[in-house]
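Field notebook, page 246. I keep forgetting to write these up properly, so this time I am using the form the group agreed on. The chain and the ligand, 2'-O-acetyl adenosine-5-diphosphoribose, are recorded exactly as supplied. Prediction of the bound pose follows.
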Amino acid sequence: MDILRVARVIASCRFLVALTGAGISADSGIPTFRGDDGLWKRFRPEELATPEAFTRNPTLVWEWYRWRMSIVFRAKPNDGHRALAELESMGILRCVITQNVDGLHQLAGSRCVVELHGSIRRVRCTSCSYREELVEPPTEIPPRCPRCGALLRPDVVWFGEPLPSDAWNKAVELCSKADAILVVGTSGVVMPAASLPYLVKSHGGIVIEVNVKPSALTSVADVFLQGRAAEVLPKIVEEVKRFVTK
Ligand code: OAD
């Protein structure tokens, strides 16, 4: 019943955006951060995902990122990513704002994707402006800049670092215009990303959440759909199609 309600809202809204987190990629085999077997249960973020950790031990940090890259490069988008791409091609979803660094939304066909936390498929130089898109994890650890010889780092946001300002400004602009936001697979505890549903809500927009369990954002959600993104999102799209073709 709630799926029908959500489909009706989505089919009639003017400017829908999505905010996604690690949960949408869980069915593609990419570990989440805070689940029972999440990355932050097995590893300490301050040892692996901070600028200080990288300065202290770049090889250790790179070993961890090489392992995560090897998972991401093997992963394929799932039905959840594909459902959001389809909603965009139907002209309903304006953009996906994601905290994920795996690039699976783009591989599923989403054209407008705002990457708030960067991309694990890209490296950048710690000294000059060199950037490179990767097709596989680096073989030599830690990799060095071919232009200036300084260390390369994954082009992701670490704890204590600001978000890329262009991505953040675009996310705020989108959420300021949105009359609905679909929040998918995020625990909603990492700022500033977690503030975006509140921004939509603050000017009367509707917050729809899809998650396997309640999150820190469930209290702001107008509708909470419990289930896996790869199951729930395609069902929503099927129902939206029925409303749109009526
Ligand atoms: P989390 O690991 O914190 O949360 C994942 C969420 O997905 C949880 O709420 C799960 O209940 C939910 N979930 C798991 N499987 C799901 C499925 N199949 N379908 C739907 N929901 C599912 O991941 P994020 O919220 O993305 O930041 O974490 C936010 C940020 O914290 C990450 O971007 C990363 C991390 O530290 C940086 O690295 C800067």
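OBSERVATIONS:
- The longest helix spans residues 58-74.
- The radius of gyration is 18 Å.
FOLLOW-UP: compare against the apo run.
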